[in-house]
């Protein structure tokens, strides 16, 4: 019995062992192991491709191809090439440690598939090192993926020669490195890729120093933030610039972001800039959370993983959408269940929301008159439940723009401050940034001095804080302390953290 490796991406990545058995019986060709119709159709493509090899005679045996594990559904025409190779090399010894991918044309050519780049990206996050054989038309792009030794061929005849001839095998190796991975910084033995381009700059925002300080804190620990203020005061400008000052991504985070983006049928590339997603308030629930009638597709929450999810005009989003946000914000993942698939996506993003203080937007204005009745204001503000607001770490009430306002810190300066806070968290041994710490990690890393503890105890009753509110206060205070270079959380850090709590 012969075997090769491939992979399937039905609900999550599964490494598939492709086994071939040749029996003395009536000639037949069967594929077993929960193979989809696409895979079963490979019988015709494989036979056609093999018939073009003049020195090969299709064996008059019963051929059974097994895709293991047999209890996992498999889909994709990229199984064509390994199936054909197992038949072609049935009497020969070959290196079975290769992952082999490729769809066969009727003329024996080997082609890429729409899903193949996603599979390779997910494979690179699952294995430390893997040798892969892929079609030539995706080889250069695949070679940019770390953890993979990429070899390429263009047709079935070359694929056979690849496993027969070591010299030809070496010629097929693709040597390429994405320039992004040459610009890395190392912290505590881990490699990270910082963003170096600032197309949108905080220096373009005049005034709003409190909002900029809040953005700095939010970026340092990946904390959720809510901006409230009159139209034109800079809420959206601040949100759109937040992605540029976020902490650097690890190599695994870049790979996962590219993999998620490719699942959205986009031509994904590697980027040092974290994701920024801003769905419109008229977007459907499925487009935001993911879904579909048959397969569970990725939505805006999954695509925002590791970056920013921005909801402008926060109260105008549908009630069902807003209430469904609570679990992903709390658990940092979203589970999508459909009849044919169940899939889970990480949602470790900064949730950024912006809203007016009232329907007309002038409630905070010192120059414009608010035309809203108290009933209209209450109805507008009640669109967002207190349970959802309790998941917001930082709240900022933004003032009107004044003619005397001047620009201050640039995004580059703010990013350098975030980087110092980020380094402190990594050196402390945290596996997650401050905003995503678990309850156990809060007790371990959010250490207060006696004065700070006394302030927090008084604030619990004064602010009517829930346990979640207490934890969020501690996590924000931890980020403030990291920005100040303090090992422990002090009184000033707790007081500033409390100042960003939304009053009931």
Automatic annotation (TrEMBL):
Which SMART domains does the UniProt entry name for this protein? AAA (SM00382)
In this protein, which residues make up the domain named AAA+ ATPase? Answer: 221-402
Pfam families xrefs: ChlI, Mg_chelatase, Mg_chelatase_C
For this protein, the record's InterPro entries field holds: AAA+_ATPase, CHLI-like, Mg_chelat-rel, Mg_chelat-rel_C, Mg_chelatse_chII-like_cat_dom, P-loop_NTPase, Ribosomal_Su5_D2-typ_SF, Ribsml_uS5_D2-typ_fold_subgr
Coiled-coil intervals, chain numbering:
none
SUPFAM superfamilies documented for this protein: P-loop containing nucleoside triphosphate hydrolases, Ribosomal protein S5 domain 2-like
Q: Extract the GO molecular function terms from the UniProt entry.
A: ATP binding
Sequence similarity = Belongs to the Mg-chelatase subunits D/I family. ComM subfamily.
Q: What is this protein called?
A: Mg chelatase-related protein
* Annotated organism of origin: Campylobacter iguaniorum
């Amino acid at each position: 019995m012969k075997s090769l490796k491939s992979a399937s991406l039905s609900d999550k990545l599964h490494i598939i062992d492709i086994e071939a058995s040749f029996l003395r019986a009536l000639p037949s060709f069967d594929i077993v192991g929960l193979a989809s119709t696409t895979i079963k159709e490979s019988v015709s493509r494989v036979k056609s491709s093999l018939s073009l090899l003049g020195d090969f005679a299709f064996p008059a045996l019963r051929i059974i191809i097994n895709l293991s594990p047999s209890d996992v559904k498999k889909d994709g025409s990229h199984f064509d090439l390994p199936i054909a190779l197992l038949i072609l090399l049935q009497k020969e010894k070959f290196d079975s440690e290769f992952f082999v991918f490729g769809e066969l044309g009727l003329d024996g050519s080997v082609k890429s598939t729409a899903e193949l780049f996603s599979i390779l990206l997910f494979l690179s996050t699952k294995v430390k090192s893997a040798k892969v054989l892929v079609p030539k038309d995706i080889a250069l792009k695949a070679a940019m993926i770390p953890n993979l030794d990429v070899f390429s061929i263009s047709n079935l005849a070359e694929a056979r020669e690849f496993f027969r001839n070591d010299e030809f095998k070496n010629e097929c190796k693709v040597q390429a490195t994405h320039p992004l991975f040459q610009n890395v910084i190392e912290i505590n033995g881990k490699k990270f890729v910082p963003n170096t381009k600032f197309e949108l700059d905080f220096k373009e925002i005049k005034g709003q120093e409190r909002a900029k300080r809040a953005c700095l804190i939010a970026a340092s620990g990946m904390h959720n933030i809510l901006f409230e203020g009159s139209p034109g005061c800079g809420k959206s400008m601040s949100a759109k610039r937040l992605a540029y000052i976020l902490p650097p991504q690890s190599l695994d985070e870049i790979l996962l972001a590219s993999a998620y983006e490719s699942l959205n049928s986009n031509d994904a590339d590697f980027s040092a800039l974290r994701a920024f997603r801003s769905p419109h308030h008229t977007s459907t629930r499925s487009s935001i959370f993911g879904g579909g009638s048959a397969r569970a597709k990725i939505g805006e929450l999954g695509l925002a993983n590791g970056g920013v999810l921005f909801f402008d005009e926060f109260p105008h989003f549908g009630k069902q959408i807003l209430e469904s946000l609570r679990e992903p914000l709390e658990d940092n993942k979203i589970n999508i269940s459909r009849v044919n698939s169940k899939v889970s996506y990480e949602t470790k993003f900064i949730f950024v929301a912006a809203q007016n203080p009232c329907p007309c937007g002038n409630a905070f204005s010192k120059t414009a008159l608010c035309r809203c009745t108290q009933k209209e204001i209450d109805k507008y503000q009640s669109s967002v439940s207190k349970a959802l607001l309790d998941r917001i770490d930082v709240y900022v009430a933004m003032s009107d723009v004044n003619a005397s306002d001047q620009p201050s810190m640039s995004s580059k300066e703010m990013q350098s401050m975030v980087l110092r806070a980020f380094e402190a968290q990594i050196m402390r041994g945290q596996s997650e940034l401050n905003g995503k710490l678990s309850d156990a990690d809060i007790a371990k890393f959010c250490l207060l001095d006696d004065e700070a503890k006394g302030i927090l105890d008084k604030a619990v009753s004064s602010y009517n804080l829930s346990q979640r509110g207490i934890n969020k206060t501690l996590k924000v205070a931890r980020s403030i302390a990291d920005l100040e270079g303090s090992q422990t959380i002090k009184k000033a850090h707790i007081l500033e953290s409390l100042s960003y709590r939304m009053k009931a």
